[in-house]
Design goal:
The chain is α+β, with helices and mostly antiparallel strands. 22% of the residues lie in helices and 32% in strands. The strands form 8 sheets. Strands 18, 19, 20, 21, 22, 23, 24 and 25 form an 8-stranded antiparallel beta sheet that branches. An 8-stranded mixed beta sheet has the order 31-32-34-33-35-36-37-38, with helices on both faces. The longest helix has 20 residues. The N terminus and C terminus are likely disordered.
């Protein structure tokens, strides 16, 4: 995943950047100066509020669902201190408060903040030969100097990403700004007097060339994605330029070949958890079959240079990290295993003496770990608690909490959470988390909401964090948070490319049918147990979750209300997403845009099914994806179906702005309360909202829907 910085693509963003550059003396910005991640645990248990979820402090990046990546925990050369960035959303200012924090690993002394500030840094993916911003925050990894006196990390301010250099002793900080473009990565050079970095100079040059070409008109070609912008994008990947800055003088020179290797090696080490080396001992993984989805097998060379084969089940699977101890005598590794990879397991292996020993197996999430002397430092989440920092003793598997920036969650009444397992119609393993309202005694069926498509770690709000699980439970809903089953095409190890896998999943909509079966089977269990009211079921989703929700609405009559966050890659996508998407979709088996293949699209297209699509549908979309939805909303309104669409400016696939997330949370809560419970919020500012929804419901009932609910 490549990284980009939020660029001023409109007057709205330019205004935000201008406001963010105003001096901190302004009262609105003083909130971040006053914020501390060291708040003590409350003595009183209370109900959860939206502000609790919106204000979660994230370690390494603003709070977001876990997707792995490099560890944000940087351990000092003497092994006594860990440095990391803490970030928290502030909805009032629509920005993020950030702080560089140090914790004492040796004497358990109090943590301290050594630097503050910085703006959001966004990642982007390279897809179909283009850079696509996706709204997800970058994981910031501080780097210590070899003498332990300084820490450097990437920081964005005033529209540029640069290196921030901080004195550990005094907290005195300064910025090292590249004139060659935003800094993408960096590394300390030997001797601690210089820092080498990769800058996006060529990318910025291409951006300027594209802007200059606007005077003659932009050519509509494979660089254009109309759903995002008519402005062409640079073709990816674009090589970085490599420079070295001398810290004392500020002099910048071109990096030598050896220095380039050091910069690249630092980035590679941070990004690859499936490799470990200690002297001559090495460990890595290799695929067990040609398919890129196949399990991985552990490969080990001991410290004497001999290959060690392991035929034990523990040596095959999905690995999340590995580390050598004892100079290469003992290998520690983390795996995902069990039913649909629900567990995190820690193993300890002496390759010279026998099989790996499992020291820990837990439903908790452990990830982005670092080895610290004799213990493992990890981020740790449970279904009911956001990430904290723990240390694990590999000899015993004992977990000890070192730092918790979200202690308030220990005193929040979140309801009851239970993990469920089942199989779909294809026999694939599925698990999910059932969340029941506080005080629920099983005495009545509940309105129930499905969230998709991952349910690992803290239950935020489904993938994309737009459907607040615990706030739904607070309102009296049961919530079934589903971890999607393994990809259907994993059953065919002979498929050797992702294009072939996508084509197999697409045939007869096999992947969508597999996920739909997982959803339907999970709901059936809750209905049979008397927990879910079959007349009051809702479904939500973003990305793959939105696709699953769309397929469910077209191919079942389960749901009485729905809300989705991305819409809709269907028969109109080749025209709306541009030539690169059209070519890619043809390559993996989609029919051409014209003439429209009605038979192919019927199981998946809202447009083809608009006449009978009477489930109340809320679309809350990023402006960069909203063009996809125009055919859908036009067709649904043509048939007077209950649909509402909201578009959020300067957003991407994952919505990054705190104020928008707060609004999305609230609208989703109100939407499902209205359609499933017949309730309204009497707040005066919502009068127009409920007037619209009553009108939708009246048309809904007039058109003969069987899903009408109580009048509010």
């Amino acid at each position: 995943m490549r990284v980009t910085q939020q660029r001023a693509t409109s007057g709205y963003v330019r205004l935000l950047l201008l406001l963010m550059s105003i001096v901190a003396a302004h009262p609105a910005w003083s909130r971040c100066t006053d914020w501390t991640p060291f708040a003590k645990r409350s003595a009183v248990t209370r109900p959860i509020a939206a502000s609790d979820l919106l204000g979660i402090a994230g370690i390494g990046r603003p709070d977001s669902e876990p997707i792995g990546g490099p560890s944000p925990l940087a351990i000092s050369p003497d092994g006594e201190t860990a440095a990391f960035l803490i970030a928290r959303a502030d909805t009032a200012t629509n920005r993020y408060c950030q702080a560089l924090v140090l914790i004492d690993l040796k004497n358990s002394g109090p943590p301290r903040i050594v630097d503050r500030g910085g703006d959001f840094i966004m990642t982007e993916v390279v897809a179909r030969g283009l850079y696509i911003p996706n709204g997800f925050p970058r994981q910031i990894v501080p780097v210590w100097s070899a003498d332990g006196r300084s820490i450097a990390y990437l920081r964005r301010a005033h529209g540029a990403t640069h290196i921030r250099l901080v004195s550990v002793a005094t907290g005195k900080a300064r910025d090292i700004i590249s004139q060659a473009g935003d800094v993408a990565s960096f590394a300390w050079m030997p001797g601690d007097k210089r820092i080498g970095f990769a800058a996006e100079a060529r990318r910025h040059m291409m951006e300027r060339q594209i802007n200059a070409a606007s005077r003659r008109g932009w050519l509509y070609d494979e660089r254009v994605t109309p759903n995002t912008s008519w402005r062409p994008q640079p073709k990816a990947p674009v090589a970085n330029s490599y420079k070295v800055v001398t810290l004392a003088s500020g002099r910048v020179t071109d990096a030598t070949d050896q220095e380039v290797r050091l910069i690249r090696a630092n980035a590679d080490r941070a990004a690859n958890p499936e490799k470990a080396r200690a002297g001559e001992a090495s460990a890595s993984t290799e695929p067990t079959a040609p398919s890129p989805l196949s399990a991985r097998r552990l490969q080990v060379t001991d410290r004497n240079g001999r290959e060690v084969r392991c035929d034990q089940p523990a040596c095959t699977g999905t690995f999340a990290g590995m580390w050598w101890k004892g100079g290469g005598t003992t290998l520690i590794f983390l795996k995902r295993e069990g039913w649909d990879h629900r567990y995190t397991a820690l193993y300890r292996w002496l390759p010279a003496t026998g099989a790996p020993r499992r020291m820990l197996r837990t439903d908790d999430l452990l990830e982005r770990c670092q080895m610290h002397l004799r213990k493992l430092l990890c981020l740790h989440e449970t279904a009911t608690h956001p990430a904290d920092i723990v240390q694990i003793a590999p000899q015993t598997g004992k977990i000890e909490t070192l730092f918790d920036p979200n202690q308030a969650f220990d005193r929040l009444d979140l309801g009851h959470v239970k993990r469920l397992t089942w199989r779909n119609a294809l026999g694939l393993e599925v698990y999910g988390d059932l969340v029941l309202p506080p005080g629920y005694r099983g005495d009545r069926p509940l309105p129930t909401i499905v969230t998709l498509y991952h349910s690992r770690g803290f239950l935020r709000g489904g993938t994309g964090n737009e459907y607040p699980v615990f706030l739904f439970a607070q309102r009296g809903f049961a919530v079934l948070s589903i971890e999607r089953p393994a990809i259907f095409a994993e059953r065919f190890p002979e498929l050797t490319t992702f294009d072939a896998i996508n084509a197999a999943d697409l045939e007869n909509w096999s992947e969508r049918r597999s996920v739909q079966s997982a959803i339907a089977t999970g709901i059936e269990r809750l209905v049979t147990r008397g927990i879910a009211d079959p007349r009051r079921l809702g479904i939500t989703g973003l990305s793959d979750g939105a696709s699953a929700a769309r397929f469910a609405l077209i191919n079942s009559d389960l749901f009485a209300a729905a809300s989705i966050s991305s819409c809709c890659v269907d028969e109109s996508a080749p025209a709306l997403a541009g030539p690169a998407w059209a070519e890619y979709s043809r390559k993996i088996g989609y029919p051409p845009a014209y003439p429209v293949d009605n038979e192919f699209w019927r199981p998946y297209s809202f447009v083809r099914n608009a006449r009978r699509m009477d489930t109340p549908l809320l679309l809350q979309l990023a402006d960069s994806e909203s063009l996809y939805a125009l055919p859908t909303i036009t067709a649904l309104r043509q048939y007077h179906q209950p649909v509402e669409m909201r578009v959020f400016p300067d957003e991407f696939h994952i919505k990054w702005q705190p104020a928008h997330r707060a609004a999305i949370y609230q609208t989703n809560l109100d939407w499902f309360d209205f359609w499933l419970n017949g309730k309204i919020d009497p707040a005066p500012e919502k009068t127009d909202e409920y007037r619209r929804w009553r009108r939708l419901r009246a048309n809904h009932q007039q058109n003969g829907s069987t899903r009408s609910n109580r009048d509010p």
